[in-house]
């Protein structure tokens, strides 16, 4: 596309579209991060962000991508050589595993076929067998962004409790926080890992660890080498709203606005909006006669939809056609799904007409790229959106 006019459609499952209101909030002179104005900003965002995690516990904010928050969680809560149980639900879980192994942790893998979520029963059974409590943490990706599968975290906690096992529960919510229901305290999550560029609607660059009392207590005995990631230094400075190192001041202006937007709409309304868009997208895929990567109806992600390409057709070539013809970016298949799936992001700052345009681009792309499909996906989605629009507005 040599001379695109109008807006690019950024329909990858993160980074998501940054709304104008957040762009305006970021577009300000940077202030003194040791001065009084910053202290007030820091105190406000550190307090308010807890509501998005549904926690009363402290939230540590790093200048980093989400991957940094994975590392921070492990090196603070654990010691080298500790055994951890990690559910390999897809590419992101596999990458977290690799990071944990590089850091010297002993990772026990619970494999899946990358088409379903973490198996709570299996986790419970493994923990029940671990009578010496050698497993120190269970690691689960809440929303596996590579497959479009959302694991049921409350069930994982129930299984851990039923096994009577003391392991910490570490959950990656990088692509779920602020988009699908997550309740840190109610679900007994010990460390919640998050990032700025997905449900929080910010540019990339901030990462989060929300930390339970139990995780904080465990960190007091951690023997892992760390400095920049150390929770203690962050929490000490955070008490007055400051940071031990130069924070991403302008992203924090944006974060203040993002939290305000999420709370104004209401978290439950935000989740319902994502659920409605997820359902409309899945109806489009079904009408096209294509398969979803997620095979368990109870685990469909409302953040993104991963669509399986018919045998002999390349997802990347379809994505290229759509980018070049309609100026829309879709998510690629990652890891072992490269070329086999494409991913439609429907998260963050998003509405019915953006979804309609997105699905229209996909349907026209399928036609142009010669991918076998039935027409009528967009129509099926529009019908669902129209049928539920009035109820959605009243809710
Ligand atoms: C995006 C994502 C990551 C990686 O985050 P970065 O910001 O790229 O480091 C990890 N886990 C999940 C579930 C993600 O969606």
Rounded to the nearest angstrom, the distance between the terminal CA atoms is: 40 Å
CATH class division of the largest domain: Alpha Beta
Percent helix, as a range, is 40-55%
CATH architecture of the largest domain: 3-Layer(aba) Sandwich
Radius of gyration: 21 Å
| CATH homologous group name of the largest domain | Type I PLP-dependent aspartate aminotransferase-like (Major domain)
Q: Which small-molecule ligands are present, each listed once? A: pyridoxal-5'-phosphate
How are strands sequenced across the largest beta sheet? Answer: 2-10-9-8-5-3-4
- Tell me the series of helices and strands, N- to C-terminal: EHHEHEHEHEEEHEEEHHHHEEHEEHH
Number of helical segments with 4 or more residues: 13
Task: Provide the β-strand percentage band.
Answer: 15-25%
Short description:
Helices cover 43% and strands 16% of the residues.
Description:
The chain folds into 2 domains: 9-16 and 266-394, Alpha-Beta Complex (Aspartate Aminotransferase, domain 1), CATH 3.90.1150.10; 20-264, 3-Layer(aba) Sandwich (Aspartate Aminotransferase, domain 2). Helices cover 43% and strands 16% of the residues. It has 13 helices and 14 strands. The strands form 3 sheets. The protein has a 7-stranded mixed sheet with strand order 2-10-9-8-5-3-4, sandwiched between helices. A 5-stranded mixed sheet has the order 1-13-14-12-11, with helices on both faces. Helix 2 (36-53) crosses helix 9 (249-265), helix 5 (120-129) runs parallel beside helix 6 and helix 11 crosses helix 12. Bound molecules: pyridoxal-5'-phosphate.
